[in-house]
Amino acid sequence: MKRHLGIGMTSSRTRERLIKRLQENGISDPRVLDVMRNLPRHIFVDEALASRAYEDTALPIGSGQTISQPYIVARMTEVLMANQPDKVLEVGTGCGYQTAVLASLVNKVYSIERISALHSKARKNLNELRIGNAQLKLGDGYQGWPVHAPFDGILLTAAPVEVPQALLAQLADGGCLVAPVGDAGGQSLLAITRNGEHFEQQELELVSFVPMLTGTKT
Fold first, then answer.
1. Is 216 inside a domain boundary?
2. pLDDT (tens digit per residue) in 133-166
3. pTM value?
4. What CATH code is carried by the domain that includes residue 158?
5. Is 112 within 8 Å of 156 (Cβ atoms)?
6. Residues that are catalytic
7. Domain-located, residue 88
8. Domain range for residue 162?
9. How far is CA 133 from CA 106, 123, 169, 206, in A?
């Protein structure tokens, strides 16, 4: 059943304020801005927080996790899209918002979530929006999804201390992996491009993400 929300939560003016904020912070890819403008972020947060859905801030989604700040979603997506990927792996589905952004821009998204409750929530949200080109899996993101590898792009929504070798191995030649990396309080957003067996690393900016954990949680 669709949620019925007040016009103030979903009005074009409210969304345009967010887009203007993203542009002021350096987001320039028109494809990314268009998706962020049109994708209903309020669908992905609890109704009690829906009035804050278009603020440029992270919000809690349960299970000790958050829906990322729109700026960081846009920033990571913009970096990933520079290589024009066709098939993307996302590690950390969460509520499915980043998944939906990616699915609006690439041919196929494979997304892994370790927390069962969030995996179910994301599936419901994506079904509600009739997004059919994202395949979800409950599993350990450290292992990636080798049966569908290689991936043109890989995006992590939680921070490992080091990028897992299994994920680097599943990155296609010429592909890009975008991830927050490091201990809490000292994380950097990295873009890692694969050239054969060589991985070129670029540090983009300091960030703060929840830690990436192993295993699954039911």
1. no
2. 999 999 999 999 999 999 999 999 999 999 999 9
3. 0.94
4. 3.40.50.150
5. no
6. 68
7. yes
8. 7-207
9. 9, 12, 24, 31
